[in-house]
Fold this sequence. Notes:
The structure holds two protein chains of two kinds. Helix content of chain A is 18%, strand content 43%. Chain A is of the alpha+beta class. Chain A has one domain (26-131): Immunoglobulin-like (Sandwich), CATH 2.60.40. Chain A has a six-stranded mixed β-sheet, with no helix packed on it. Chain A has a three-stranded antiparallel β-sheet with strand order 2-4-7, with no helix packed on it. Chain A is globular and about 65 Å long. In chain B, strand 18 (349-358) and strand 19 form a beta hairpin. Classes of the chains: A alpha+beta, B alpha+beta.
Amino acid sequence: MKISKALIISILIIAFIGITASAMPDSLLPGEEGNTAELIVITKPPKDRSATFDRSYVISGYGKEGTLVAIYKLAGGVFVKTDYEWQIGASTYFAIPIELDGRKNILRCRAEDGNGNFQHARLEITYLGNSISDMVKNITVDPSNIPY
Amino acid sequence: MRKEQIKSVVLVLLILNCVQLTGQIWFNKKLWPGGYNFFAFNFSSTAMNAVKPQRLVINGGNAREVYYPRQKQYNDIYKNVTNIIANFIDSDDLRGTAAVKDDWKTFLKDKSILLSYGHSMDSGSFTSSFNKAVTGFPYVGVLSDVLITGDGVTNETIVCIFNSITETAVTYRLEGGGESFLKYIESATFGKNHNKSFAFELFWDLNRENTSIERSVLVDSFVLLPMDNESVNLITAENPLENDFTIFDGIVSALGYTPSTLRKSVSENDNVASYVENSATIKISPSGMIEYSAVDPQRGIPLQTGKADSLNVVNKVFEITEGIYRQIGIDDIPNIYISSDLIAQKGERFILKMNYSHNGKPIFVYSKDNLAPVDAIHAEVEGGYLKSFKMFIRTFNEIDDVATTVPVITAFDELAKQIGKTRKVLIEDVFKCYIIKDSLAEIAWGVKTDDVNDNIIIINFDD
């Protein structure tokens, strides 16, 4: 009887450890590095530092199947986890559409598999648009009314 | 005497006319206006939609929109680019500059309008689709896409022709109009979003070294990837032939035969009506399948009465198709697009495939006895004669029910699962489509890969 109880408790502990291991931390310290570079390849942005005129931006690339990719934003000296997440499927591709906040967006991309491997990548995306270009978004123009 | 005088006057007029026309030839003045095509087609609206680009992609730098035939924005933009292309075709003194793949990528990212035909065609078919003769047209060869942009510095209008088979492009510069064209694009993309990316913009087409990540699904540089989830109205399909045998004779008439002169029989098992004569057989099934087959190409339906080009064949096949719909009493013919290449091969067999679409989304219709979708129209032409013609007739109605597509990467994941890890495929195109197995359509993703010859892999999550 005692043995079966111990077995159930052990299974629950192992399951709990498994869950916590695959859960992304809520925040990351700026200097925190990953323990692998083999989980994902970020293709866009193509460099650590990029600029765009569009407030909507897609962070994309490819990686090992089953890897969870999450985006963190720098806030108050730490990188705070956002809702932007992607679980990589069989195709290996991921594309995470994000909305840029201010002019300079300092982000951290964290990839994690279920085996304790995690990878960090620092991304700096500068938004070059302005408030006027934001205002005109979604205003519909009828091309037939455009003199040409 | 009076009769002789009239004869003399007519003779003198004829001689004067002869001298005048000869003078025109000597002084190089054309006998007909520029761009006049002796073999201009009178396309019906259905045929005209089929020969137009399957999609227009307007790139505003920071915004990108895609429009499909029958959309108002499509018609407005197409009207504008038609004028530019008409001028381009008439400009017989232009010299093209070969462009490399990276140039084409730059054009696609900059302010431009892309006419994507969805299939390859010869230059004759391209000029004919604008009711222009190919004579003097500077581009010779096969093309699949045409892009128009402007040069803000020189004010030139740039037309770039792309061949997706060889992935080569040729650029032409027309005098004037460049600045106003760029302004037009800016206005037409004003306030629009950028939620569709070409694969090369995400750098998915590049292989990174020093990585252990193996990809079984590769994506061609020019695949346009929608990054948003779209909600689309579903459609229903109807078979207009079901249980209506009275219209079968009318269909035979639309194929150019007199029903009373053919031997008619109806099979007991499946009620398929067969009309037989010495040179051809016509079979009409209540399932909606209409099949015409000539015993010998020379005894088929003659198609090439004018200039021998593939668009002439398209036009004639559409005449038959529209005739069949009219005989059934349907005036609102479904949108039909060309799904095979239009490359003329003199004296050889030419296969023309066409399929239905709704709001720019192809409709793949399954017949009851087929596991794979059947083409709406499959025509085989040989030596200018229609040797065989198959049509799976349907009509479609949009309903209020709405379905949301899964993200494109989820479709790629499903494709990767289907193909397994032992082989690799290159995705050449991906698009949303309807699939119809019963009467109600489901929304799915269609994927064209390099692995299957012209077949589309349907990724459907409802199975």
